[in-house]
Every structure is written in structure tokens, then in C-alpha cells.
């Protein structure tokens, strides 16, 4: 059996595996796709101590670092279920099952997409999902934020300090964000809020040059010229397979304490799939390291051999 079995091969999972292997204990990683969201990222400018890197390059370094240690990497394998116990059973979609004394869940999350023409095509060419990551790239330019919940309104307030103008589009007839955020938003001079606005298309040439939306009251189609679109309609944790196994928040995030412990003893979690706020690479790595040290602590207190 593994001492530590990590599920997920993004920054959180890679950090967890390295920290575990450095304790000289039997460590494995099962990942559907090693690298996780970082594989889909173009420029990265906020991974501290590295001025600029690109997703695939960072993933290659992660892989290289993991390979320095005795880590059993099982890539392109999806976990279908976890059965907790003294020895947890980690069931793979291919029918195989792995046994582990401790499990670290680091399955990440994915941004909910608008699914409109142009969105995929211009992803990374004006269509963005993370204001903390990509906001500064639009300095002095015009952007839209799609989504009027807390994350959309926070993004619009954040971006308004960097870009020249923000248009926030909300599908419903009013914003869903907390009142205090709305108050702040409406106080900003360079923000326009459009409600009853359904984004229908992202337009561009080599990069984004505009957005088309349907005014849901008049039924009219309207166009806005802009350089960037931040989609803020939800972040979906990859935790469906854990329903009924570990406690999840109402957003589907794995509930963890300050040590990365889940509701099930011996099962830890880290990164974007958890309740820890601010979904960022540097945070996921720190959380992965932390969950791994907690797993080790659990092992020295519970296992006899
Ligand atoms: P992930 O990176 O999502 O990794 C999850 C891992 O779990 C993957 O290996 C996946 O295949 C695996 N997995 C999922 N389900 C299963 C399963 N059932 N069985 C087995 N394996 C499974 N952050 C920054 O700090 N700076 C940036 O500039 C930046 N830009 C971004 C740009 C884009 C386009 C996106 C999408 C994200 C960006 N982020 C950025 C956010 C950052 O990528 C995430 O915060 C970070 O990758 C989270 O790491 P993680 O290890 O928790 O999860």
C-alpha cells in the first residue's frame, strides 16, 4: 500500500508528492492529466521569484522535480471513487484499485464557460478567467466582465483600477453580489453595468475586438468594442466523485481545516478543489505542501510498522 497517495497532478498534487517523497515514504500520484490547469495557461507572471513563464514550461519543471524522487506517477488515470478506511481504497475508472494509508485530494477546478461562439477560439487572446492573473495585461484597455455574482463584481472593481473601462454584463435583471460590493461598484466612474444582458458571441480578428449580447428586455442584439473579456460565471471544483465521501461546501469544494484535513481521518485535500480561498498556483503549491506534512503527521501517529 502507499503511505501517501495523491489524487491530482497539478501544482497542489506535485507539491504534495514531493514533500511526501522527501520523508522517504511510499508515495504515488494518480492524475487524469499531469499539470492540470497550468497546462492551459499561456503567460504566468505571478509565480513569485519567476518573472515570466508559460504553463507547459512550468509543468515540465514540475514533472522534472517530481522525477527527482521515488514517486510512482500514474498519469492519464482518472479516479472514480474513494472508499475510506484504515487502508483507503482508491478506485480508478479503468477498474483497478489502489490502497493507501493516507490520501491527498488535489483534483483542482475548472472555470465555467459561456459556451458561445468565439470563446474557445480567443481563450488567452483576450478571453480570460482570472483577474489576479491576467488583469495587468489589459492595463489602459477596455474590458468586459461577464457575471454579476460576487466574483464578477469583485473582478470588475479590481479591474477598474487597472484598465480604462469595465462593462459588467449580468444575465438576470439584477446583480447577485453582496450589497457592499455593489455599492463600491456603482461608485466607480469607469464602470458600466448592464443587466438582462446575455452574451452571445465573442468577436475578433487575431485577438478579441468585441462582444455581442442580447438585450433580454428588447430582444435586440448589441455590440461592445473592447479588448478583453473576463468570464466570471463560476468555478467548478472537480469533486463530483467525492459526493457522500467527504464533506463538501455548497459550491462543491472539499471542506478542509487549517492543516488540510478533510472530514475523513487520513484523507487530506489541497488546492483549487478545497474551501481555501483564492485559486492560484502559488497558493495551491503551499497548500499541497501543507496537506502532505499533515498526512505525514497522521502516519507517525497512527501506523505501527
Ligand atoms: P489543477 O491545476 O486543476 O490540477 C488538478 C489535477 O487533478 C489535474 O492533474 C487533473 O487532471 C487531476 N484530476 C481531476 N480530477 C481527477 C480525478 N477524478 N482523478 C484523477 N485526477 C484528477 N494561477 C496563477 O497563479 N497564475 C496564473 O497566471 C494563472 N493563470 C491561469 C490561466 C488559466 C487559463 C487557468 C485555467 C488558470 C490559471 N491560474 C493561474 C489558476 C491556476 O492554474 C490554479 O489555481 C492551479 O492550477 C490550481 O492547482 P491545483 O493543483 O489545485 O489544481
Automatic annotation (TrEMBL):
Serves to protect the cell against DNA damage by alkyl hydroperoxides. It can use either NADH or NADPH as electron donor for direct reduction of redox dyes or of alkyl hydroperoxides when combined with the AhpC protein. Disulfide bonds join 130-133. This is Alkyl hydroperoxide reductase subunit F. NAD(+) binds at residues 142-156. Homodimer. One of its GO terms (biological process) is response to reactive oxygen species. GO terms for cellular component: cytosol; protein-containing complex. It comes from Azoarcus indigens. Coiled coil: none annotated. The chain holds residues 212 to 516 of 517 of the full protein.
Amino acid at each position: 500500500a502507499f503511505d501517501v497517495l495523491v489524487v491530482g497532478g497539478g501544482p497542489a498534487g506535485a507539491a504534495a508528492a514531493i514533500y511526501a517523497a522527501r520523508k522517504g515514504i511510499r508515495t504515488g500520484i494518480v492524475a487524469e492529466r499531469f499539470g492540470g490547469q497550468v497546462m492551459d495557461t499561456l503567460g504566468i507572471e505571478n509565480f513569485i521569484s519567476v518573472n515570466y513563464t508559460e504553463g507547459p514550461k512550468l509543468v515540465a519543471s514540475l514533472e522534472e522535480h517530481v522525477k527527482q524522487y521515488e514517486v510512482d506517477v500514474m498519469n492519464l488515470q482518472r479516479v472514480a471513487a474513494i472508499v475510506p478506511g484504515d487502508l483507503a481504497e482508491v478506485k480508478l475508472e479503468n477498474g483497478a484499485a489502489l490502497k493507501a494509508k493516507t490520501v491527498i485530494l488535489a483534483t483542482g477546478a475548472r472555470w465555467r464557460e459561456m459556451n458561445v461562439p468565439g470563446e474557445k477560439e480567443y481563450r488567452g487572446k483576450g478571453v480570460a478567467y482570472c483577474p489576479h492573473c491576467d488583469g495587468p495585461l489589459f492595463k489602459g484597455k477596455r474590458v468586459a466582465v461577464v457575471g454579476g455574482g460576487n466574483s464578477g463584481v469583485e473582478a470588475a472593481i479590481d479591474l477598474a483600477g487597472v484598465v480604462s473601462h469595465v462593462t459588467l454584463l449580468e444575465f438576470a435583471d439584477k446583480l447577485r453580489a453582496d450589497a457592499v460590493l455593489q455599492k463600491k461598484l456603482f461608485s466607480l466612474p469607469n464602470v458600466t453595468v448592464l443587466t438582462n444582458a446575455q452574451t452571445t458571441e465573442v468577436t475578433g480578428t487575431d485577438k478579441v475586438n468585441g462582444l455581442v449580447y442580447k438585450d433580454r428586455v428588447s430582444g435586440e442584439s448589441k455590440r461592445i468594442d473592447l479588448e478583453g473579456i473576463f468570464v466570471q460565471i463560476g468555478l467548478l471544483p472537480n469533486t463530483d466523485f467525492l459526493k457522500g465521501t467527504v464533506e463538501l461546501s455548497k459550491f462543491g469544494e472539499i471542506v478542509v481545516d487549517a492543516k488540510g484535513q478533510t472530514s475523513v481521518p487520513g484523507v487530506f485535500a489541497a488546492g483549487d478543489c478545497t474551501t481555501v480561498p483564492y485559486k492560484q498556483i502559488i497558493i495551491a503549491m503551499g497548500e499541497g505542501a501543507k496537506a502532505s506534512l499533515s498526512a505525514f503527521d497522521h502516519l507517525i501517529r497512527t501506523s505501527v510498522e
